[in-house]
Amino acid sequence: FVAVFDFGAQYGQLIARRVRDLHVYSEIVPCDISADELAAMAPSAIILSGGPASVYAEGAPDMDARVFELGIPILGFCYGEQIMAVKLGGEVAHTDKGEYGPATLTRLGSSVLLDGTPEGGQTVWMSHRDSVSRAPEDFMVTGRTDTCPVAVMECPRRRLFATQFHPEVRHSEYGTRMLENFLFGVCHLEKSWTMEGIIDQKVEEIRQQVGSRKVILALSGGVDSSVVAALVHRAIGDQLTCVFVNHGMLRKGEPEMVEEVFREQFHMPLVHVHAEERYAKMLAGVTDPEKKRRLIGTEFWKVFFDEAQKIGDVEMLAQGTIYPDIIESGARKTGGKAATIKSHHNLIPFPEGVHFDLIEPLDHFFKDEVRELGIALGLPAKMVWRQPFPGPGLAIRIIGEVTPEKLAILKDADAIVREELDAYNQRLFEETGDRNSEHACWQYFAVLPDIRSVGVMGDERTYRRPIIVRAVESTDAMTADWAKLPYDVIGRISSRIVDEVDGVNRVVYDVTPKPPATIEWE
Ligand code: XMP
């Protein structure tokens, strides 16, 4: 496998994903892992990521210089190039002005890393302030840009390579070729990370881990829990029971889709808990967003564990933790120190005295891989490509008290927003061939505020509710921008909502990025 050293700000994640896209397994390791620990993991190659710090700055992320003595091929990008230079006796200088964005790379002589890329200029993506001013002894400088004298350096004898730019970024025209040159030309790695291979391996692992025990899973209909369900079911069949807690605040058509896919298509043991009334009573009169969240979350697990009790003798709980959850929660499995950004959001509040062994078969998969796995396991595309949906559901998209009347309005309006923007995304996908195309809407839904406004329909004055349409572009929900939808798309959403949804006489579009707003309204 390829060990990716992460020098901060999660630069490593994109690199690990690019390597896996080339069908080679890669894993992120903390940058300060010792050479001995690393040697014990026996990676076939190492990639050093970029990072926001300056190598000479106090407290800058550091690495064990003995890693360079292990004889493992190493490729460094940006900060990775700079730290390689410094550790091996070269020099890094603070350039007068940083360089951000596209630059033209000129090749200097023959190069292992740049093999098969143009001799003349090629576009590479830069994002740095410091840069290497003198390569270490033994290294050849094989590329430069106007502002960067050592844009590429290599020492083929020791199999050490580095670039100042970011080959992992799509804007670097021949970045993929450079990665291929390193992975296959230098390291002779095999393309063994393929979905078929992965499924076989995971199925075997799950069988080993579970044995004859019973497993339970909280199925939400979301991507991660659905893929875990399909995967674990492939491995152990009816030893798995899925519990679907229907709290009544799911989107229109969602409970039906869960039934259709899991009961009818997969023939899985599925417990559909109708908790709609229980939740409606519990939420009556509650207006505070955090109180809604707390009540819904606590009740969810109470209902779930009651069901587990009824099934009896369940010893294991499967859950859809994915790789970014692990990395973000402090690299639990890799035992590392990646900065803790947010606590593990999948932590389950087990009741007193209750214990389950956890099984988390997706804990080393990126989201895109989870979707690919879902398709390979036979889940429908509409389920695998679903947008994120918050656990508390529509309750946090109804401002103020949740009532049956408001829920009915929101469900209908939201279905229209989704239908129109699903189609918009599909058109973009057909035009660009990219599901994650920059302007695709990442999350889109309707919000129902707790106000009414005056309107006119026919000859009659109306006093009804408005619907807020929220649609954002984002990659990770940490930041987001409002989607620049074509006017005709917004117009159609608006007229359909006022025509088709009873009780609504106005539609507005939220044009606020995050920050300062959040994606959700509560
Ligand atoms: P915000 O509104 O904070 O949302 O910009 C960021 C992302 O998180 C989702 N979200 C939640 N997910 N439980 C969840 O499981 C919650 O309480 C919750 N609140 C927000 C939101 O949909 C967006 O994708």
TrEMBL record:
Any single Gene Ontology cellular-component annotation: cytosol
InterPro entries: Class_I_gatase-like (IPR029062), GATASE (IPR017926), GMP_synth_C (IPR001674), GMP_synth_GATase (IPR004739), GMP_synthase (IPR022955), GMPS_ATP_PPase_dom (IPR025777), NAD/GMP_synthase (IPR022310), Rossmann-like_a/b/a_fold (IPR014729)
Sites where the protein binds ATP: S220, G221, G222, V223, D224, S225, S226
Top enzyme category: ligase
Keyword ATP-binding: yes
Record SUPFAM superfamilies: Adenine nucleotide alpha hydrolases-like (SSF52402), Class I glutamine amidotransferase-like (SSF52317), GMP synthetase C-terminal dimerisation domain (SSF54810)
Gene3D superfamilies assigned: 3.30.300.10, 3.40.50.880, HUPs
Keyword Transport: no
Catalytic machinery residues: C78, H166, E168
Recorded GO MF terms: ATP binding; GMP synthase activity
Pathway named in the protein's UniProt entry: Purine metabolism; GMP biosynthesis; GMP from XMP (L-Gln route): step 1/1
Keywords: ATP-binding, Glutamine amidotransferase, GMP biosynthesis, Ligase, Nucleotide-binding, Purine biosynthesis
GMPS ATP-PPase domain ranges (all copies): 193-386
Enzyme Commission designation: 6.3.5.2
Catalytic activity: XMP + L-glutamine + ATP + H2O = GMP + L-glutamate + AMP + diphosphate + 2 H(+)
Alphabetical list of Pfam families matching this protein: GATase (PF00117), GMP_synt_C (PF00958), NAD_synthase (PF02540)
The protein's role, per its UniProt record: Catalyzes the synthesis of GMP from XMP.
Subunit: Homodimer.
Protein name from the UniProt record: GMP synthase [glutamine-hydrolyzing]
